Amino acid sequence: MSRSVLVTGGNRGIGLAIARAFADAGDQVAVTYRSGEPPAGFLGVKCDITDAEQVDLAFKEVEEKQGPVEVLVCNAGVTKDQLLMRMSEDDFGSVIDTNLTGAFRVVKRANRAMLRARKGRVVLISSVVGLLGSAGQANYAASKAGLVGFARSLARELGSRNITFNVVAPGFVDTDMTKVLSEEQRAGIVAQVPLGRYAEPKEIAATVRFLASDDASYITGAVIPVDGGLGMGH
Ligand code: NDP
């Protein structure tokens, strides 16, 4: 059965791979984008998730064009890496505002229709560094760890309404976000990954799709690592 899916930041990188995975399975997929043109084959809704009004308008458009959101993937995220002593309050706050509060805005808006339908699937994209920590990424790691507490609280709050909340924690994935790393940094990371390579975006997408499928009907509040073994034990 075709469902109404919304992927934030589904216009590129991991989000686009997630959007493709759902579309390939026959779902109707909307993706948010902030500028330029959205990718072909999806309902593109312009939306900056730091603005609650834009989030509301985006949901209205999705509801009109493909129905209330049944599967929500909170994927949009940013980094502003800096060592603590050089990290400004804005560097910290803006990353939290996008990665954590942004997810709050989107989940809260999606929840309205999910409560009414008495079903829903929410998948939040965290990161291995949320649990492992990462020097120079205190803001990012805090935002990604925050998503775990957020999802697990909602799994408890809304489980009786048949809404599941799960977290996917990718390791290093080949996208624009990691292109900024130097060759030396990349080699250092790969050396710590048991599988000895970066992930492809579609490898993250496959897990997200599973968590939103009927096969995952009894999974909620889970944190699923898709990290080549990098975070084992955490
Ligand atoms: P990219 O930098 O390639 O893409 C980021 C996406 O987030 C873009 O679609 C971007 O939209 C969107 N976005 C950023 N800020 C906002 C905002 N305020 N409102 C709406 N959309 C926004 O990143 P990845 O694809 O690599 O990452 C996707 C997710 O996966 C992120 O949450 C990231 O933290 C997480 N992740 C990534 C890993 C990696 O190694 N790449 C590892 C672990 C987790 P726009 O095009 O408009 O900028």
From TrEMBL:
Alphabetized NCBIfam families for the sequence: 3oxo_ACP_reduc, PRK12826.1-2
Domain Ketoreductase as annotated: residue spans: 3-176
EC number, UniProt record: 1.1.1.100
Keywords attached to this entry: Fatty acid biosynthesis, Fatty acid metabolism, Lipid biosynthesis, Lipid metabolism, NADP, Oxidoreductase
Protein source organism: Streptomyces evansiae
Protein name per Swiss-Prot or TrEMBL: 3-oxoacyl-[acyl-carrier-protein] reductase
Pathway(s) where this gene product acts: Lipid metabolism; fatty acid biosynthesis
Subunit structure comment from the entry: Homotetramer.
GO biological process, one term: fatty acid biosynthetic process
Pfam families: adh_short_C2
Residue positions binding NADP(+): 9-12, 75, 140-144
Function, in words: Catalyzes the NADPH-dependent reduction of beta-ketoacyl-ACP substrates to beta-hydroxyacyl-ACP products, the first reductive step in the elongation cycle of fatty acid biosynthesis.
Catalytic residues (positions): 140 (proton acceptor)
Domain of life: Bacteria
Molecular function per GO: 3-oxoacyl-[acyl-carrier-protein] reductase (NADPH) activity; NAD binding
Enzyme class: oxidoreductase
Catalytic function, reaction form: a (3R)-hydroxyacyl-[ACP] + NADP(+) = a 3-oxoacyl-[ACP] + NADPH + H(+)
Gene3D superfamilies: NAD(P)-binding Rossmann-like Domain
Lineage: Bacteria, Bacillati, Actinomycetota, Actinomycetes, Kitasatosporales
Family: Belongs to the short-chain dehydrogenases/reductases (SDR) family.
